[in-house]
Amino acid sequence: IAAAVDIWARGPAALPPPRQPRTPVLPVEGERNVLITSALPYVNNVPHLGNIIGCVLSADTFARYCRLRNWNTLFVCGTDEYGTATETRALEEGLSPQELCDRYHAVHADVYAWFRISFDHFGRTTTPQQTRIAQDIFQRLLARGFLLQDTLEQLRCESCGRYLADRFVEGTCPFCGYAEARGDQCDKCGKLINAVELKNPQCKVCRGTPLVTPTQHLFLDLPKLEGRLEAWLEHTLATGDWTANARHITRTWLRDGLKPRCITRDLAWGTPVPLDGFRDKVFYVWFDAPIGYLSITANYTDQWERWWKNPQQ
């Protein structure tokens, strides 16, 4: 506070000269380097004030503060474009998923530009870099024994010739009897649903009756990481600034024991799985989407690893 008062008393002439912008922004030895990301908005709708206020505006405010401090700052974001939400909206609008993504990515970019959000780069997840990096991470996990194969029972529509993701199924809620429950949740009673539990299930596309069919999937072997994660958390929770809510949720997961997590889906729209026996599947969006932060940076600069694999700076 005393330093701030002193600078204020001496006036603008006492301030250091503003940092000259460089393209691309890369980490600099001996300086404070700050990488800022904002939650990737889904591309299947027009952003509203809640999207802006919920994450984008706060990140933008912090980015502007960092630049005023003359810290070397990179601020990236982009649209999250894979997953069943995109497929569902594309069907509703009579577009291909790629056409829908192209349309709404442009809408998002225009809205954020109108609000003068100071992204250094606003990208998207449907890029060759996303495919390359996601598949590389997958291959590393596979080589190190962190993946499992197991069978899931899923609803398959023979008329459409495909397995149905949760959002492509409607039926009667097994808990409250609501007749228009989705394959993932009942909007009346609020309970989460496994799609195969629905009574009188219907395919949303053709209104046919799907059948429960077994299918092979790949799982992230999270129990194998539990010990290392607990040791890391003990150190991080003691030295970091986690919220009470984040601490509670994380400890609850560990208390109950981590479970294998499915990372593949029987869909056409997504990053392809590069493994024999699974090449007709794509990565589950919650495996794929966080990698978007890396790939968006990689589309900004081919030296992206200097930001993402550089803990010393």
Automatic annotation (TrEMBL):
InterPro entries xrefs: aa-tRNA-synth_I_CS, Met-tRNA_ligase_1, Met-tRNA_synth, Methionyl/Leucyl_tRNA_Synth, MetRS_core, MetRS_Zn, Rossmann-like_a/b/a_fold
PROSITE patterns to which the protein is assigned, alphabetical: AA_TRNA_LIGASE_I
GO terms classed as biological process: methionyl-tRNA aminoacylation
Keywords: Aminoacyl-tRNA synthetase, ATP-binding, Ligase, Nucleotide-binding, Protein biosynthesis
Molecular function, one GO term: ATP binding
Entry GO terms, CC: aminoacyl-tRNA synthetase multienzyme complex; cytosol
Gene3D superfamilies linked to this entry: 2.170.220.10, HUPs
Stored SUPFAM superfamilies: Methionyl-tRNA synthetase (MetRS), Zn-domain, Nucleotidylyl transferase
Catalytic reactions on record: tRNA(Met) + L-methionine + ATP = L-methionyl-tRNA(Met) + AMP + diphosphate
Ligase among keywords: yes
Domain Methionyl/Leucyl tRNA synthetase: 34-311
Keyword Aminoacyl-tRNA synthetase: yes
Similarity field: Belongs to the class-I aminoacyl-tRNA synthetase family.
Protein name according to UniProt: Methionine--tRNA ligase, cytoplasmic
Lineage, opening ranks: Eukaryota, Metazoa, Chordata, Craniata, Vertebrata
Encoding gene, per UniProt annotation: Mars
